[in-house]
Design a protein that fits this description.
This protein is of the alpha/beta class. The chain is built from seven helices and 13 strands. It has helices spanning 12-17, 36-46, 49-52, 67-72, 120-137, 187-195, 248-275, and strands spanning 4-10, 23-26, 29-32, 53-60, 93-94, 97-98, 103-105, 142-146, 166-170, 198-202, 207-210, 216-223, 233-241. The protein has a seven-stranded mixed sheet with strand order 7-4-1-8-9-12-13. It has a two-stranded antiparallel sheet with strand order 2-3. Helix 2 (36-46) packs across helix 7 (248-275). The longest helix is centred in the last third of the chain and has 28 residues, at 248-275. The radius of gyration is 18 Å and the shape is globular. The chain starts with a strand and ends in a 5-residue tail after the last helix.
Length: 280
Amino acid sequence: MPKAKLVYILSLRNAAADKAGQHVDYRGARRYMKSPLEYLAEALDQSPLGDDYALQGIVYDDDPGSPRDQAALADYGFAWEPGRPWIFPPGLGTQGRLLRDLLHPVPSTYRRLALDAPERPAAKQAYEAVLQDKLLALEADVVVLDGLLVILDALVRPGARFERRIVNIHPGITRTESPYRRRGAHATLDALYGARGQRVTDWNTLRTEPAPRVERTGASLHYVDNGIDSGEVIFDVLGTDIAPDDTILELRWNNFQQSLFPALHQGLALLAPHVRRGTP
């Protein structure tokens, strides 16, 4: 049976914040920060996932014309360059192709507009149309989002071409009923504050209030809908203990290893029969 064609979408600025592809301080030592993308590339070569999926392309939405994106990517740049840090090793390949040759920029330039700018909705819609064209050109059967700092709308509406074809790997438990639920862009920091017995009430000022201590977190692979990490869960793992004195990067490293990589791997394995080419 033909492999499902997989397209991976991320924001480079999110990977840069994680120091992806670099060594980071970890309790007085140094540890390598492997990204979910790097993990997936290795899994496609070293596990049965490679029998189910073919990596078609890696799309990123970062905007070279945005001063904020320029600052976020000051150490990395917007494309791989020899001798410069990058989010994965420059020689990393999978299924016989170098990852750096699979990169496709689709800049989300609408983000330059103010949130209340009257032209922003149309600009956002135009971005999603270009993104859909890229996915169609790559013949995507399934799309994996990893740290995409954009909320999709038209692409995932009921009846849309990619409804239930786009999934997100999220560094937190997303189930509504879970006492460990951590949704949204601040999931890891939210979990870290929770382990300290605090709840953030204002993310702009980081104002907190006392809250019950929650010393575990996890990760979820879920379908993407029009909400924030609210889609149906495919597979999740609650496998990460949190020390109150963890740094954000120490917790990210632990959660990747203990929860996120397993959730990504097992979730894609469960998803494979539903997205193989030629099936509804």
